Amino acid sequence: MTGTAIKNWQSVQQEVLNRINSKLWKPGDLIPNEAQLASEFGCARATVNRALQNLADTGLLERRRKAGTRVATHPVRKATLDIPIIRKEITGKGYAYRYALVSTETVVPPRDMAARMRLKPDEKILHIVGLHMANGEPYVFENRWINSNVVPAVRDVDFSKQSPNEWLVENIPFTSGDIAFSALCAGAFEAEMLSCKTGEGLFVIDRSTWKAEGAITSVRLVFAPGYRIHTEI
Amino acid sequence: MTGTAIKNWQSVQQEVLNRINSKLWKPGDLIPNEAQLASEFGCARATVNRALQNLADTGLLERRRKAGTRVATHPVRKATLDIPIIRKEITGKGYAYRYALVSTETVVPPRDMAARMRLKPDEKILHIVGLHMANGEPYVFENRWINSNVVPAVRDVDFSKQSPNEWLVENIPFTSGDIAFSALCAGAFEAEMLSCKTGEGLFVIDRSTWKAEGAITSVRLVFAPGYRIHTEI
């Protein structure tokens, strides 16, 4: 390595990884600063910065302002998941996409949902159940609440034409949100929606988004048996 | 906003979010460059860069070298998940941690696992089943294969004292890996390991890691009923 100029951030990253893997730089060690590494590798400091930041993002390095960069002692690996529009996820896999509206109503939600969305007592909001299909087979259904008092435009939308998932992403930007992944055992409702057997293990995503005025939406996505989310670490 | 100096990257981010949310900057629009925004906000260009990069990381902006920064038309939101050592995850929730080794053997793995780990025909590797407990209750079990030919040091470890999860994280750095999330329906084996009923929906993580010499490990983590992973978007 020494003596060979490193041209891009990927090769800087590989060299840093090699030094960590070979224990030349051990867990807890302070590594040379960006300027020193740039000089050693014969590359721009920004190139070193990008490589180190990427390794910090994956949890292998710990960077502190002024205190410098250390090899992580207990690396907490991070995985980044893309959360696309469901239509794009399905067409991206090469399947034909279809959306079917199952039901829509404006009602007072169950108490736990009203609390999660911080509604007023007896506040009625929009409840939509819809099914996303891939090549005609159930792929995921969404059981969604939309705060129609925070997002009044939602009252004029025809959700038999477009899924609320897609309409919200395109029209209502959010400032914060949370997402949770879990599993459930298919009961009668899930089995009917997804044309599967009761007792199947189903992958579940719960998601809520917020803007300054309050909760926009809270949705449970329940996927057909066999669904997997995959990413690199 | 105009006329008020913005001091930190969080307030730059908030102002950019406000402009996107109010549709002052619409999906697809090219936004002013870093130098222009730094001048408008009366802050350092690095401050603007950090705010824009953060919004790009969450999928709201699309940045291209030389072509500039645009408001994403179909924002693909990204969620980042921490993948800690299981012991740290359990103690971090305030539970007492215990690990129990269930079985260990050196055998030829099933064909699909041998293919995934790119083993030679009839190559024997280490198979370990272990249970992680929180306050004495089953939390997750790991069904793990370790390529003892790529990681020979593993042969001398006593896995009744330390879980392979923790030993590998601390001793065998990896250069690449993948992770998948899914659900399964508890069969007799899962129900016995987790002291739950057959037919429960269980959350599953499959993870494989690699170094230059080959696959290090491939593990399936099966969590007790009710497990959730939660993060912000």
Entry summary:
Chains A, B: Keywords: DNA-binding, Transcription, Transcription regulation. Two copies of one chain form a homodimer. Chain A is of the alpha+beta class and 233 residues long.
Strands, helices and their partners?
The structure is a homodimer of 233-residue chains.
Chain A: H1 9-21, H2 34-41, H3 45-57, E1 61-64, E2 68-71, E3 77-83, H4 86-92, E4 97-107, H5 111-116, E5 125-134, E6 137-146, H6 164-171, E7 176-185, H7 188-194, E8 201-211, E9 214-223, E10 228-232
Antiparallel strand pairs in A: 1-2, 4-5, 5-6, 6-9, 7-8, 8-9
Biggest β-sheet strands, sense, barrel of chain A: 6 strands, antiparallel
What proportion of the residues of chain A is helical, as a percent range?
25-40%
The radius of gyration over CA of chain A amounts to: 24 Å
Number of domains of chain A: 2
What low-confidence regions of chain A span 5 or more consecutive residues with pLDDT below 50? none
Counting copies of identical and different chains, the oligomeric state is: homodimer
Looking across the biggest beta sheet of chain A, what order are the strands in? 4-5-6-9-8-7
CATH T-level topology of the largest domain in chain A: Chorismate lyase
Q: Total strand count of chain A, please?
A: 10
